[in-house]
Amino acid sequence: MRTDSRLSRMLHVLLHMARDQQPKTSQQIATMLSTNAAVVRRTMGGLRRAGYVQSEKGHGGGWRIACDLNQVSLYDIYQAVGTEKIFTIGFDHSHPDCLVERVVNDAIGEALSDAERRLIKRLQSVSLGDLAQQFSRRYPT
Amino acid sequence: MRTDSRLSRMLHVLLHMARDQQPKTSQQIATMLSTNAAVVRRTMGGLRRAGYVQSEKGHGGGWRIACDLNQVSLYDIYQAVGTEKIFTIGFDHSHPDCLVERVVNDAIGEALSDAERRLIKRLQSVSLGDLAQQFSRRYPT
DNA sequence: CGTAGATGTATCAATGTAGGTTACGTGAGT
DNA sequence: ACTCACGTAACCTACATTGATACATCTACG
């Protein structure tokens, strides 16, 4: 199954933007991500609607960070990009009133929910500021 | 994104098979799952290679359980069906030597690994026998 | 102003994967 | 022999993400 790399991409972009306060155009970001400008606008639109970045049109326009990196977690970004499914594992619903199916799906569902809660907790515990700090520590200039 | 319902399907089938020791043909199972026989053979082939079921050709042939339900966990079945990716979340690898990308992917990777370990642990803690027992408890005949 | 630069968005194509479908080979039982 | 059933390959279909193109709209600059 194809994976959704939007979270990874957006974090990548945000950290680069944080290190260089100049506004960046969609095209510049697209080049950075080896994709094209429309994809960047589409994906970053989620971050804009959530208020984590701002965009401006016209000369000298582009994207800028509009939040305190220490106040925004990886989970916030995850939600802003709008990923709807986390797991590739799904349920069989061929016979919704089959009681066996219900027991099976409940068991799988509980395991998935548990893992999902864990993932969310982990993503919530790391802020963009933490990542920026990790970068500075691991790769001092 | 389309989900992989093979685990759910296989558990569904196994529990039905456990309740009726008669061998079942691929076509019977396909009808049970609202799919077709080739898909059943393809998916159950994994369980056969792992030794959890046996198949026999010819008259009176079909699929039978070949394991102790109490010794096989949901995780065993999960592995037998051969799911390779658990999460829809992936990594951006547009610039493998970008240090920012590395920090970001490490952070996401740790969160995912943690959640995956949790999921595996949960799936390992439930046996097919447990599910069969849950069924009997929840829906006594 | 008019023009160039930028986003916002709609639309279509490419791509990858699970599942569906068909077909045929092979072995087992009658 | 014939039928039943699995084993497997090949190809198609459905669907979601991403890529690509186009165009409207807004903004700054000369």
TrEMBL record, chains A, B:
Lineage top rank: taxon: Bacteria
Single GO molecular function: DNA-binding transcription factor activity
Entry-linked InterPro entries: Tscrpt_reg_Rrf2 (IPR000944), WH-like_DNA-bd_sf (IPR036388), WH_DNA-bd_sf (IPR036390)
Any one Gene Ontology cellular component term annotated for this protein: cytosol
PANTHER family with a match to the protein in the record: HTH-TYPE TRANSCRIPTIONAL REGULATOR YWGB-RELATED, WINGED HELIX-TURN-HELIX TRANSCRIPTIONAL REGULATOR, RRF2 FAMILY
Name used for this protein in its record: BadM/Rrf2 family transcriptional regulator
Lineage: Bacteria, Pseudomonadati, Pseudomonadota, Gammaproteobacteria, Alteromonadales
